[in-house]
Specification:
Layout (H helix, E strand, L loop, with lengths): L6 H4 L15 H7 L3 E5 L17 E3 L4 E3 L5 E4 L2 H15 L5 E5 L12 H6 L18
Parallel strand pairs: 1-2, 1-5
Antiparallel strand pairs: 3-4
Length: 139
């Protein structure tokens, strides 16, 4: 992500791989050009330990849900929380003339409650795919 390369060329075929530091990222180019670069994550998949936070002036990965209902690590936050963090950051720092802002939303991947308070009280939102009927097959 932010390298302009396909996964087979930048070295991250799926989540959990570390970005090779030899990759030049868009955030590096923009920062060198005088942009303030800031990112806000909705999921651990892009955590800084995998190299995605490189060259961001601000990289917010403050997740509000660390465990799902089945006891598995989630390390996510709902879109409302991501948006609130963006607004809070811009209120605190102001909006620079040259700004690159990346807001990562994980919500489209599965349904979630609409607010942080309802999410904390209900962790049974974990996505469970429904079986798909393929119809009858005749040979």
């Amino acid at each position: 992500m932010f390298t302009g390369k396909y996964p087979q060329n930048h070295g991250i075929p799926r989540n959990g791989f570390v970005l090779n530091p030899e990759n030049v990222m868009l955030t590096q180019i923009l920062k060198e050009a005088g942009f303030h670069t800031t990112g806000f994550l909705g999921s651990f998949a892009l955590d800084s330990r995998f190299g995605f936070g490189r060259a961001f002036d601000n990289f917010d990965e403050d997740f509000d849900l660390t465990m799902g209902s089945e006891g598995r690590e989630q390390n996510e936050r709902i879109g409302e929380s991501v948006t609130n963090s963006v607004i809070r950051h811009l209120d605190d720092t102001g909006v620079p003339e040259n700004l690159f802002l990346f807001a990562h939303y994980f919500d489209p991947r599965c349904p979630r409650p609409t607010s942080t308070s309802s999410r904390r009280s209900r962790t049974s939102w974990v996505f469970r795919p429904r079986p798909v009927s393929t119809g009858s097959r005749t040979t």
